[in-house]
TrEMBL record:
This is Acetylornithine aminotransferase. Belongs to the class-III pyridoxal-phosphate-dependent aminotransferase family. ArgD subfamily. It catalyses: N(2)-acetyl-L-ornithine + 2-oxoglutarate = N-acetyl-L-glutamate 5-semialdehyde + L-glutamate. N(2)-acetyl-L-ornithine binds at R142, S282. Pfam families: Aminotran_3. The lineage of its organism: Bacteria, Pseudomonadati, Pseudomonadota, Gammaproteobacteria, Pseudomonadales. Its cofactor is pyridoxal 5'-phosphate. It comes from Marinobacter persicus. GO terms for cellular component: cytoplasm.
């Protein structure tokens, strides 16, 4: 076994340079605290980008993984397995869904959703009804199809030609959708209830309700990308409940596995029928280990007291960050829902979100960005109040140093 020293410099020697990770290498985590190679401690408000929904080394997740690891790891979809069936049944019981497809990542779940939308229209109307409407500044993954549906051209640069039949309307602007939607050609409208990578920008309730009505009117499917907003992140199991708008297809990943790679596409029996045998698949989708861990996550985050706690912790974190923003003149608002929050920089600090990440690390607190103008927070859904208090104190010191105040 290779026991040579591991350093940040090794990344540049052996990894494809599509990432630019920070200089620290975390080696251990417990709850909402993380320690690096030198033993430095950090309060984690990143949550693995809304992934580690129950924090690090959660005893329940460790137990679920260990118990399943002594039974079955992997079978492929030539066979089904008990954890996958139990998880699918749980998701159907807790949501609008009647059918579930498992994959490994949000991009794969969205790829399945977009393929299903086209296949459903092909089955029920014809090949000409294949167009997808998405939104500017949206993000749906890094496969060629999902990048094309996403509304950020920078992610497509150098990878064209992209799949066609995709149009982009303006988020929170229903009139822009009306100008594009067609009963003859539109098969689906795809939307994030809260644009995550696009700046933690929530949809208006009237906007999502309007999308539902437009889709019904034009025989199009409404697809909610809840990769980032799902699995309890907003204080609801899924954000569609918060809005009172039910989609035809919903995608879930990130926090669903609490750090173990898994994703799900949820839909109705009628729509699911179009993915008949052989039309789509995933080698690892429905993996027994992943499903066993995700079962524990869902069982935990769906509890009313946990969801109530998300809202309480959200209020505490939102107020604390807004107070810091006002004292130092760095944030003009804190938006989002639950424990997916975006601290929007003032004009003076516009474009400098990464500076706040770096300053936070220097003081022992881990935060994220959502574009150049927003500091994003997506911690564990069960982060203790004492850790929130400590994180706010450390972040204030970071801001004080950054601003010189």
């Amino acid at each position: 076994m290779n026991k040579d020293p591991v350093s940040r410099e090794l990344f540049d020697e052996v990894m494809v340079p599509n990432y630019a990770p920070g200089n620290i290498i975390p080696v251990r985590g417990e709850g909402s605290r993380v320690w690096d190679q030198d033993g430095r401690e950090f309060v984690d408000l990143q949550g693995g980008i809304a992934v580690t929904s129950l924090g690090h080394a959660h005893p329940g997740l460790l137990g679920a993984l260990y118990e399943q690891s002594e039974k079955i790891w992997h079978l492929s979809n030539v066979m089904t397995n008990e954890p996958a069936l139990r998880l699918a049944k749980t998701l159907c019981d807790l949501t609008f869904a009647e059918r579930v497809f498992f994959a490994n990542s949000g991009a794969e779940a969205n790829e399945a959703a977009f393929k299903l939308a086209r296949r459903y229209a092909w089955d029920n109307t014809g090949a000409e009804k294949n167009e997808i409407i998405s939104f500017t500044n949206s993000f749906h993954g890094r496969t060629l199809f999902t990048v094309a549906v996403g509304g950020q051209p920078k992610y497509l640069e150098g990878f064209e030609p992209a799949p066609g039949g995709i149009h982009h309307a303006e988020f929170n602007n229903l009139e822009s959708v009306k100008a594009l939607i067609s009963k003859e050609k539109t098969c689906a409208v795809v939307v994030e209830p809260i644009q995550g990578e696009g700046g933690v920008l929530p949809a208006d309730k009237d906007f999502l309700q309007g999308l539902r009505e437009l889709c019904d009117e034009h025989d199009a499917l409404l697809v909610f990308d809840e990769v980032q907003t799902g699995a309890g992140r907003t204080g609801h199991l899924y954000a569609y409940e918060m809005y009172g708008v039910t989609p035809d297809i919903l995608t879930s990943a990130k926090g669903l596995g609490g750090g173990f790679p898994i994703a799900a596409m949820l839909t109705t029996e009628k729509v699911a029928a179009s993915l008949s045998v052989g039309t789509h698949g995933s080698t690892y989708g429905g993996n027994a280990l992943a499903c066993a861990v995700a079962q524990k996550v869902v069982d935990t985050v769906s509890q009313p007291e946990v969801l109530k706690g998300v809202k309480a912790h959200s209020d505490m974190l939102r107020k604390g960050m807004m107070d810091i923003g006002e004292r130092y003149g760095v944030f003009r608002e804190v938006r989002g829902a639950g424990l997916l929050l975006g601290c929007v920089l003032t004009e003076e600090w516009k474009g400098r979100a990464k500076d706040f990440v770096a300053a936070g690390l220097d003081e022992g607190v881990m935060v994220l960005v959502a574009g150049g103008d927003v500091v994003r927070l997506a911690p564990s859904l069960i982060i203790p109040e004492t850790d929130i208090e400590e994180a706010l104190a450390r972040f204030e010191r970071a801001v004080a140093t950054l601003t010189g105040l």
